[in-house]
Each structure stands twice: as structure tokens, then as C-alpha cells.
Design brief:
The chain is α/β, with parallel strands linked by helices. The chain contains 20 helices and 20 strands. Strand 4, helix 10 and strand 5 form a beta-alpha-beta unit. The two termini are 41 Å apart. The mean pLDDT is 92.
Length: 478
């Protein structure tokens, strides 16, 4: 009798999940994959779906949060946008009738994020330069320091930053720190506890068991609402010297000053509210300041996405960026496990004669996504896309440059997890000079890379090809 009851409960539960899967209107391949798992592995499939498959609870939760954030942000963000609306309108006119204008509109509609000016944009390609500049900014902080990282280590760098933050707390500066629970799970927390005892607001993000498949991959640093940082670098010494595993660590990060910092603050404040219920949407954190030199300011825009959002905004925008190219595309990402739409878009660019080039790491930190990437290369190469693997150390940069016209730097990898499951962000920069700088970095990196050829792919043995194809099937959890 008990066995029969348990059986019927299991059948009923699977039936409910099947209905929910169909009702979600997800990508058919994803829906069918979960249906097969539940059909052939019911005992294993149910917990797998609970931890890795459910999206509907996040959609409901994010909708509730979005309503509160929207109401709160109306008190401060319109003032920032309105103060620079004329400048932004004049700069946008330069792109009238072009695909760049469509990208600006696309981001604005998906993320409710109009373009804003950045008074200054600095790009860093090594951790030593980035963290030296960040420490300098924290030294000058007078009101608040907001730091959000996927990984917060415990090492030489964090010891230095911790001591600095403790001193700033003593000076009355407000400090908030957010780190991803899983991303930092094996890192010591003694320094973070010391900061908390001294009055800093410190919290781990995504700590619940049913959140284990979703990560907060943001990297944000904001000082006094005046200077902001984002890019690929986490708070750990290995991003400076490669750590114990790598000879070097190659990454890309960006620092901005001016009104655009409000978009970074907006993302930080949104995530802070989700975790704590504390609203930071006040004039204190979103100051309205005039541009010091409007003629040299740069038009920028923030695209962001997360599990459960209506749009996979980063994927959609990256896809449009690739499709908009007339002459050249440069893409850098440590991993390459794209969804079909982006993969087809890059192939289409290559077939149409666009000078499309992609670079990833040639020194892997994770074998599975590294192997999976090789299954995508044959068609890319046949279509004319050039593929490079950086071999001087671990390669972690995330950047796109198109036609020497606009570029994007952020946290998102070219993989399905970044497109669909993680909290990610990318800063679009509509400036020829900055874009050429990103393209020049790509060109320099090719000297430290090896180019993948069709002949090399063809030489791979059957067992190697089978292994690569097998791990590709795991793309959703890579």
C-alpha cells in the first residue's frame, strides 16, 4: 500500500513538472531534454530539476522585486537621465539610421537603461593596474564604497584591501560588500568577518539550496557614486599574478567616471535590496553632477540579464552586435559554449565575408567547457571565422568590438550559462577611439596565442571527438 502511494505521488509530481515545463514556453530543446530526464531517470530527475531546471519561481520573485525597485528608482534615476538627456540625444544622432542606433534602442527597451555619458573611460588588461587604481580610489573615498564580486579570496590582495577598508570605516565611510556564496565557498572568510565586526555591511549572495544553479557573476566597485568598475576581474591575488595554477592571468576591466556610474550603482542597489530588503535608491548614492568636459565624454549603456528575466538581454544584444557588423568582429571570452542562435549568428557573419575573429583560453581552468568548445570550431572555421587560443597564461577577458565603432566589456562569457542563468552585465561603449583600443588589445593578444586550424581539428582522434561531443551535452551546467 505504501509503495503504491509513493508511486502515485511520484507520478503526480512528475506530471506537475511536465505541465510547468510546457507552460513555461522555454526553448523546445531544453524542455525536451528535461522531459527525457524525468521520463527515463525519474528518481534522479526530480532532484535534478528542482536544483537545476526550475525557472518559474525566479520569474515570480523577480517580478515582485522589479515592481519595488521601479517605484523606488523613480525618485532618483529620472533626475540623472534628465540632467544629461540633451547631451545623450545629440550623441545618439551620430548613429541615426545605423545598426548601432538599433542596439541603443534595444538595450533601452530590454533594460530600461537609456545611454549616459562617462566623463572618463580607462581600460585595464592586467590585475596589477586595475587593483592599484581601485585601491587609490578607495583611499580617496569620503562617503561610501560598494564592492560586489563573484569571488572574494583571502590572500595578499584581500589583506591589503581589508586593512584599507577597516581604516575607511574608522573615518566614517560606509562599506558594503557582496560576494557569491558558491563562487567564494572555498575561500577563507576571516577578513570579511573582521570587516563586518568593524561595521561594514557584508553578505553572501544566493545561499539557498534551490539557488545552487544560479550565480551572481557581477563584478562591481563603486566609490562615492563618482567612479565605478566592472569587467572580468574578481577580488583575489590570482587576478594579478596568476596564482599557484597559472604563469599569468590575462583579463579586461574598465573604470569609468561620471554620470554612467549610476547604472553600476543601480545594479548594486537592486541586488542589495533582493538580499537585504534595504533600499539604496536615494540622492546620496545617485548624485546628479554636471559633466566637467561634455566634448570629451563618451556615450555608454549598460545591458544586464538574469535567470527568470523576460529577455535574455545580454544574449539578444550580443547577437544583434554580431549581426550589425559590416567589416569586423572581435570577440574574447575564456569559454565558448554558445546557444544555437549566437552560434548561427557568428557563422553567418563569417559566411558573409565579415572579418570575424574569436579568442578563448588555451590554458584551461575547467576541462569540460574547454573540451566542449572544440565541437563548435569546425563550422566556424569552414565559415571563415578565425579562432585563437591564448597560451601565455589563463585568459579570462570578456570583450566584443565591432567595426571600430562600438565595443562591450563586462562579466558575461560566451556560454549558455552566462546568457540564461547568471546575473551578468556588459558595458556598451559607443566610441571609436575606445573601440580601436579594444581591437588593438585583441591584435596584441594574437601574438601570445595559437590559431586553431581545420587541419588540427581533423587530426583529433575518435575518442577525443566523442569526449568533446559528450561534454557538450552538459552545456547547461558547464
Amino acid at each position: 500500500m505504501l509503495v503504491t502511494f509513493v508511486t502515485w505521488v511520484a507520478i503526480a509530481y512528475v506530471a506537475v513538472i511536465v505541465v510547468l515545463l510546457i507552460y513555461e514556453d522555454r526553448d523546445p530543446s531544453t524542455t525536451l531534454a528535461w522531459l527525457l530526464v524525468l521520463l527515463f531517470l525519474p528518481v534522479v530527475g526530480i532532484p535534478l530539476y528542482f536544483f537545476f531546471g526550475r525557472v518559474w519561481p525566479w520569474r515570480r520573485r523577480r517580478a515582485r522585486v522589479a515592481a519595488v525597485i521601479d517605484a523606488a528608482s523613480r525618485h532618483v534615476l529620472p533626475a540623472v537621465y534628465c540632467a544629461h538627456a540633451s547631451w545623450a540625444k545629440e550623441r545618439r544622432r551620430r548613429y541615426d539610421g545605423t545598426d548601432t542606433a538599433k542596439i541603443i534602442t534595444m538595450i533601452e527597451r530590454q533594460c530600461a537603461a537609456p545611454p549616459l555619458p562617462a566623463q572618463r573611460v580607462e581600460i585595464f588588461t592586467d590585475g596589477a593596474g586595475k587593483f592599484a587604481r581601485l585601491i587609490e580610489d578607495i583611499e580617496s573615498a569620503r562617503d561610501h564604497v560598494h564592492l560586489q564580486y563573484f569571488i572574494w579570496g583571502r590572500d595578499e590582495l584581500t589583506a591589503r584591501v581589508t586593512q584599507l577598508l577597516l581604516r575607511k570605516l574608522g573615518e566614517g565611510v560606509e562599506v558594503r560588500v557582496v560576494y557569491d556564496f558558491i563562487g567564494s565557498v572555498f575561500r577563507g572568510k576571516g577578513e570579511l568577518r573582521a570587516l563586518k565586526r568593524a561595521g561594514a555591511h557584508v553578505r553572501a549572495d544566493l545561499t539557498k539550496l534551490n539557488e545552487v544553479n544560479y550565480r551572481n557573476h557581477h563584478k562591481i566597485a563603486i566609490i562615492d557614486g563618482v567612479a565605478g568598475y566592472t569587467g572580468g576581474m574578481n577580488m583575489a591575488q590570482e587576478y594579478i599574478d596568476g596564482g599557484a595554477r597559472f604563469d599569468t592571468w590575462r583579463d579586461t576591466h574598465v573604470r569609468v567616471e561620471g554620470p554612467f556610474v549610476a547604472e553600476m550603482q543601480r545594479l548594486f542597489a537592486t541586488r542589495w535590496f533582493e538580499g537585504t530588503g534595504e533600499l539604496l535608491f536615494t540622492e546620496r548614492y545617485f548624485p546628479v553632477r554636471p559633466l566637467t568636459d561634455p566634448s570629451s565624454a563618451v556615450l555608454c549603456q549598460m545591458v544586464h540579464s538574469s535567470v527568470g528575466d523576460q529577455w535574455e538581454a545580454i544574449k539578444q544584444t550580443f547577437l544583434h552586435a554580431v549581426a550589425s557588423a559590416d567589416r569586423s568582429i572581435r570577440i574574447q571570452s575564456p569559454y565558448f559554449v554558445p546557444d544555437q542562435a549566437f552560434y548561427d549568428g557568428l557563422i553567418t557573419a563569417g559566411l558573409s565575408g565579415i572579418d570575424a575573429r574569436f579568442m578563448m583560453t588555451g590554458v584551461p581552468d575547467k576541462r569540460i567547457p574547454f573540451w566542449a568548445a572544440f565541437t563548435y570550431f569546425p563550422k566556424l572555421l569552414a565559415a571563415g571565422v578565425r579562432v585563437y587560443q591564448y597560451t601565455a597564461g589563463f585568459f579570462h577577458a570578456k570583450a566584443i568590438a565591432v567595426d571600430s565603432t562600438f565595443c562591450a566589456i563586462g562579466t558575461a562569457n560566451i556560454d549558455v550559462r552566462s546568457f540564461s542563468l547568471h546575473d551578468e552585465m556588459a558595458m556598451f561603449i559607443y566610441d571609436a577611439e575606445v573601440t580601436r583600443q579594444v581591437e588593438a588589445v585583441f591584435e596584441y593578444d594574437t601574438r601570445l596565442s595559437r590559431e586553431i586550424t581545420a587541419e588540427e581539428i581533423a587530426r583529433a582522434g575518435r575518442l577525443e571527438r566523442f569526449r568533446n561531443s559528450l561534454v557538450r551535452l552538459m552545456s547547461r551546467v558547464l
